[in-house]
């Protein structure tokens, strides 16, 4: 080939990979943001775009070279909207994840995660929920509050449902499914009584069970009716295509079976009397090749569930009894998944707990019972058909859940939808596998889109790359700051251009370095609309934001104000700016309820403020390598305290939690907020520093720092003395204050007791002087700037410098102790971390709880206070839709379960949650959790042993994504310490049943020592379980329980 032509085709997002399918589709694996799937409409031959030829260079003579150079020309084109491609689908991606927050603004059972994602015109604020994504197909109002709903076909061979039967308190409504759903009166169902059950029988007859009759409506319209004895009524029923079971009051259970020859439902001669009232019944579907089911389940009001044989060759024998913690509300017998040999009994209790028990296929013995808390309302269970003909069970409580099998593992995940009261399967020409459900007085038809994506997102578009956001809890609205470098913003001159070529697809017009476009946005997370967008002018860009309530200010403003750190003409290399400001905004609400910003004043700073937080009822700003505390003034912010001389550039500030949020003041006879006097600041390249503030002296003291120069990307407190950090090399670490320093700091409570705090700091300063400080250390220069009119270092004889801002340069007197560390893997970086008392309580602040009992990760992991023994287990969650096209993390795979359920906890504020968890987010869109292990014998040793076996050479080749050495993978930068890979442990469930004995590492190859020497294969699962002194089922149950207790 000597030449080829190039021609403008269409414009898509910047992609890491492109794939063209023979079916005429183009997949674009975006570098950042969502991935797109396009359909090729044409090959671009129809347009009038110019074509440019590229010719192979030839070295014949200089004249030819000159001629080729003359013919060279630049290829120019004008971007336009899509003409050759049509967007047909998108895969959500959280990459890049810039910042996050966890809260429960929607007042749901579990909190929502809010993330700033994307860059440029493709940026967005995403609402991330744990749950399967649901599409609402139709909603219809009913004449009253319905009690139950069913769907039924006209004939067994029909593919789609024909009727929807809705039962009310005293009536029944039958709806015909067609192009429109409409009521029918000639269906054969009686409408003046409630219905307990509906079933299509094998003879194409329809069954209606009411409290006073069992009605068999035959295909030709004839009706056979069975009525209970006088004074008795039907209180529960269950059925399949050939068998019907009803329960009468006072404990009688009667079985009917369809007689194929006579075409009637024949009553069994034998009745079963339980001896107590029956609450619910269940019978499984008839397996292919059989004529009847052989077992049924009965739930009784004596808090038991009984399994009864209905084999005609045997009596109605009770095969087993399951004791329950509360009265059952519903039962379900289902072959979950594709395997018909696996039968499970699901029991929904009135206290919101669901139990799943496996039944032996031959003896129906009850084994392996699992318990999950689903909500505060009674659990109702319904068998369903999922995609690809897989059976599943829908459980309804305060939110809907679905139990199913995926990749050979049981999963129990919530649906991201409203609370439902009753449900049934639904199939039509438009909906292959759906659900028709009742919610109060409405009838709803929904579909579950995907069973392999347990996390769903809702996106709200932004204009530029997000830099940070805060939540105004009073108005429940976000304030987002956005800044973009090297572009021309959406100004009036370019408004027409951007309207024709949306930046979300085409990006912005590029400009030179040092040019910025920035805005401040007030965003309503419920509607996705922006109440107010404030564009910054004169090349000013926003870099930090905080919501502050100034408690000590004499200003008339008693509400929160917004403080934004900005810079003008900022250059990134070298890091300079023409000027920098702290802008203070107040909030006001318009008549239509929109929240708008009003500029109060702005204060100039020496450098761009990189981080802002509320501290001691004032504003604390990280300006360059200094900490500056401001109070609110009438015309500008007033400087109150200053700490200078920190190493390079401060990037993050985190305030330590307090034991109590409020304290009673005897002097003023009122309740006042308790302010923390401790904080941790991170340097861009010199790890973290523990800082203590003395309110009486208005001084900051750096009392502890790290020995490793980490490039910090995220940090959070686990308790007042322990901090979790991550760096840009993907290392996660837990650091803790040394015992000596902790004891001294504990003398000063985190309250407004200045004298005791100052005494503790005074003693620390004495220790500083007793330690030989290392002066002029170029790598670490820590200082405490002391105003000339304030004591401090001078009070204890410290050397003061009068010629510079450094009062003293030295290393901190104490060093953090490394408690745990590990690499998160996949060349990923943690960008945000949140420490929570418990996942269900994530929307509450940490200070709402007694942190000494709930979030002290170190104390809950085997006695860190005494033995410095910290252990944690690391779970990775990945948005499965994003992961399918990203192999960034070997420990996060779509085959891993994203959880089962949330264990029950007391919601009383006086009861401390007992399942703390650390949630983290990564740059590539991964969501993970760190769980503290509470028992060294039952938890730490178990998971360490399991991890050791799965790391072995026997198992490592089964997990190709982990490479040959898992310990090397998790110790890519620093040796792993006291952190167990939970995602690796969960791969135990995916181990094959048999492996060749040559892979054995547990025994030698000699026949007299290896019991498997005479066998070509053996069960690796069983071998690992034996080394743990457990069965295979117990190991899997332990893995599921530890996840369900702490996380989703």
Automatic annotation (TrEMBL):
<dbReference type="Pfam" id="PF10433">
    <property type="entry name" value="Beta-prop_RSE1_1st"/>
</dbReference>
<dbReference type="GO" id="GO:0006397">
    <property type="term" value="P:mRNA processing"/>
</dbReference>
<dbReference type="InterPro" id="IPR058543">
    <property type="entry name" value="Beta-prop_RSE1/DDB1/CPSF1_2nd"/>
</dbReference>
<feature type="domain" description="RSE1/DDB1/CPSF1 C-terminal">
    <location>
        <begin position="517"/>
        <end position="768"/>
    </location>
</feature>
<feature type="domain" description="RSE1/DDB1/CPSF1 second beta-propeller">
    <location>
        <begin position="135"/>
        <end position="448"/>
    </location>
</feature>
<protein>
    <submittedName>
        <fullName>Splicing factor 3B subunit 3</fullName>
    </submittedName>
</protein>
<dbReference type="GO" id="GO:0003676">
    <property type="term" value="F:nucleic acid binding"/>
</dbReference>
<dbReference type="InterPro" id="IPR004871">
    <property type="entry name" value="RSE1/DDB1/CPSF1_C"/>
</dbReference>
<feature type="region of interest" description="Disordered">
    <location>
        <begin position="888"/>
        <end position="911"/>
    </location>
</feature>
<dbReference type="InterPro" id="IPR018846">
    <property type="entry name" value="Beta-prop_RSE1/DDB1/CPSF1_1st"/>
</dbReference>
<feature type="region of interest" description="Disordered">
    <location>
        <begin position="58"/>
        <end position="79"/>
    </location>
</feature>
<dbReference type="GO" id="GO:0008380">
    <property type="term" value="P:RNA splicing"/>
</dbReference>
<feature type="domain" description="RSE1/DDB1/CPSF1 first beta-propeller">
    <location>
        <begin position="5"/>
        <end position="49"/>
    </location>
</feature>
<comment type="similarity">
    <text>Belongs to the RSE1 family.</text>
</comment>
<keyword id="KW-0539">Nucleus</keyword>
<feature type="domain" description="RSE1/DDB1/CPSF1 C-terminal">
    <location>
        <begin position="909"/>
        <end position="989"/>
    </location>
</feature>
<dbReference type="Pfam" id="PF03178">
    <property type="entry name" value="CPSF_A"/>
</dbReference>
<dbReference type="GO" id="GO:0005681">
    <property type="term" value="C:spliceosomal complex"/>
</dbReference>
<dbReference type="InterPro" id="IPR050358">
    <property type="entry name" value="RSE1/DDB1/CFT1"/>
</dbReference>
<keyword id="KW-0747">Spliceosome</keyword>
<dbReference type="InterPro" id="IPR015943">
    <property type="entry name" value="WD40/YVTN_repeat-like_dom_sf"/>
</dbReference>
<keyword id="KW-0507">mRNA processing</keyword>
<keyword id="KW-0508">mRNA splicing</keyword>
<feature type="compositionally biased region" description="Acidic residues">
    <location>
        <begin position="58"/>
        <end position="75"/>
    </location>
</feature>
<dbReference type="Pfam" id="PF23726">
    <property type="entry name" value="Beta-prop_RSE1_2nd"/>
</dbReference>
């Amino acid at each position: 080939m000597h030449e080829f032509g190039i021609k403008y085709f269409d414009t898509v997002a910047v992609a890491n990979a492109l794939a063209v399918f023979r079916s005429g589709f183009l997949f674009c694996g975006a570098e950042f943001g969502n991935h797109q799937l396009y359909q090729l409409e044409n090959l671009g031959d129809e347009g009038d775009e110019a074509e440019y030829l590229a010719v192979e260079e030839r070295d014949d003579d200089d004249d030819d070279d000159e001629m080729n150079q003359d013919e060279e020309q630049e290829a120019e084109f004008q971007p336009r909207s899509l003409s050759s491609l049509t967007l047909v689908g998108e895969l959500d991606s959280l990459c890049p994840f810039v910042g996050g927050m966890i809260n429960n603004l929607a007042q749901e059972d579990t909190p929502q995660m809010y993330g700033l994602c994307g860059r440029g015109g493709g940026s967005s604020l995403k609402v991330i929920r744990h749950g399967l994504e649901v599409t609402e197909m139709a909603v219809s109002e009913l004449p009253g509050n319905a009690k139950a709903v069913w769907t039924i076909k006209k004939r067994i061979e029909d593919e789609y449902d024909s009727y929807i039967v809705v039962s009310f308190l005293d009536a029944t409504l039958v709806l015909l499914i067609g192009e429109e759903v409409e009521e029918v009166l000639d269906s054969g169902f009686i409408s003046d009584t409630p219905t307990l059950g509906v079933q299509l029988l094998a003879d194409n007859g329809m069954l209606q069970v009411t409290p006073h009759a069992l009605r068999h409506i035959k295909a030709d319209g004839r009706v056979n009716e069975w009525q209970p004895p006088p004074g008795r009524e039907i209180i529960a029923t269950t059925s399949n295509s050939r068998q019907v079971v009803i329960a009468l009051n006072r404990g009688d259970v009667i079985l009917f079976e369809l007689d194929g020859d006579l075409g009637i439902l024949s009553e069994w001669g034998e009745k079963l009397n339980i001896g107590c009232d029956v609450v619910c019944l269940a019978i499984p579907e008839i397996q292919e090749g059989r004529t009847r089911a052989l077992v049924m389940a009965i739930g009784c009001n004596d808090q038991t569930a009984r399994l009864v044989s209905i084999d005609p060759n045997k009596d109605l024998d009770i095969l087993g009894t399951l004791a329950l913690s509360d009265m059952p509300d519903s039962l379900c017998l289902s072959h979950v998944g594709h395997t018909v040999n696996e039968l499970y009994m699901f029991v929904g209790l009135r206290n919101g707990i669901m139990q799943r028990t496996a039944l032996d296929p031959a003896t129906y013995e009850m084994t392996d019972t699992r318990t999950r808390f689903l909500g505060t309302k009674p659990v109702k269970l319904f068998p369903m058909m999922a995609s690809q003909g897989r059976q599943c069970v829908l459980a309804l409580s305060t939110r809907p859940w679905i139990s199913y099998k995926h990749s050979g593992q049981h999963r129990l995940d919530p649906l991201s939808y409203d609370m439902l009261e009753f449900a049934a399967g639904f199939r039509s020409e438009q909906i292959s596998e759906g659900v028709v459900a009742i919610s109060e007085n409405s009838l709803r038809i929904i579909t579950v889109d995907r069973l392999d994506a347990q996390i769903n997102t809702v996106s709200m578009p932004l204009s530029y790359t997000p830099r940070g956001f805060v939540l105004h809890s009073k108005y429940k609205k976000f304030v987002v700051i956005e800044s973009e470098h090297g572009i021309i913003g959406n100004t009036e001159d370019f408004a027409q251009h951007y309207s024709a070529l949306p930046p979300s697809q085409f990006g912005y017009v590029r400009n030179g370095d040092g040019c910025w476009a920035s805005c401040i946005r007030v965003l309503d997370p419920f509607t996705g609309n922006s109440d107010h967008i404030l564009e910054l002018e004169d090349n000013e860009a926003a870099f930090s934001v905080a919501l502050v309530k100034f408690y000590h200010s004499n200003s008339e403003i008693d509400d929160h104000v917004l403080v934004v750190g900005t810079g003008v003409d900022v250059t990134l290399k070298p890091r300079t700016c023409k000027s920098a400001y702290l802008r203070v905004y107040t909030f006001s609400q318009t008549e239509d309820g929109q929240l708008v910003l009003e500029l109060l004043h702005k204060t100039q700073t020496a450098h761009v403020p990189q981080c802002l937080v509320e501290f001691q009822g004032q504003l604390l700003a990280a300006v360059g390598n200094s900490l500056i505390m401001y109070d609110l003034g009438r015309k500008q912010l007033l400087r109150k305290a200053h700490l200078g001389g920190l190493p390079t550039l401060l990037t993050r500030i985190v305030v330590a939690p307090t034991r109590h949020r409020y304290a009673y003041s005897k002097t003023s006879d009122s309740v006042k907020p308790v302010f923390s006097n401790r904080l941790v600041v991170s340097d861009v390249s010199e790890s973290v520093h523990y800082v203590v503030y003395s309110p009486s002296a208005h001084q900051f003291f750096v009392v502890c720092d790290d020995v490793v120069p980490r490039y910090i990307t995220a940090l959070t407190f686990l308790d007042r003395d322990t901090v979790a950090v991550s760096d840009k090399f993907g290392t996660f670490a837990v650091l803790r204050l040394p015992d000596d320093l902790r004891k001294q700091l504990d003398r000063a409570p985190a309250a407004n007791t200045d004298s005791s705090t100052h005494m503790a700091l005074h003693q620390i300063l004495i220790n500083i002087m007793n330690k030989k400080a290392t002066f002029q250390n170029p790598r670490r220069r820590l200082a405490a700037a002391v105003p000339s009119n304030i004591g401090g270092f001078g009070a204890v004889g410290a050397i003061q410098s009068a010629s510079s801002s450094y009062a003293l340069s030295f290393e901190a007197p104490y060093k953090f102790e490394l408690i745990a560390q590990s690499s998160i893997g996949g060349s990923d970086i943690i960008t945000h971390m949140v420490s929570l008392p418990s996942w269900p309580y994530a929307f509450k602040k940490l200070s709402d709880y007694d942190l000494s009992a709930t979030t002290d990760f170190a104390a809950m992991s085997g006695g860190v206070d005494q033995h410095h023994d910290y252990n944690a287990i690391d779970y990775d969650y990945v948005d499965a839709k994003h992961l399918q096209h990203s192999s960034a993390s070997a420990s996060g795979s779509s085959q891993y379960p994203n959880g089962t359920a949330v264990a029950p906890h007391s919601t009383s504020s006086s009861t401390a949650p007992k399942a703390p968890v650390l949630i983290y987010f990564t740059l590539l869109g991964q969501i993970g959790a760190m769980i503290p292990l509470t028992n060294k014998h039952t938890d730490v040793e178990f998971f360490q042993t399991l991890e050791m076996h799965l790391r072995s050479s026997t198992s490592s080749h089964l997990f190709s994504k982990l490479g040959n050495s898992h310990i090397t993978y998790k110790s890519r930068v620093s040796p792993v310490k006291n952190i167990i890979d939970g995602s690796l442990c969960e791969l135990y469930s995916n181990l094959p049943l048999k492996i060749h004995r040559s892979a054995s590492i547990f025994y030698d190859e000699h026949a007299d020592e290896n019991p498997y020497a005479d066998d070509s294969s053996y069960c690796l699962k069983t071998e690992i379980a034996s080394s743990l002194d457990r069965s295979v089922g117990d190991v899997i149950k332990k893995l599921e329980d530890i996840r369900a207790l702490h996380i989703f």
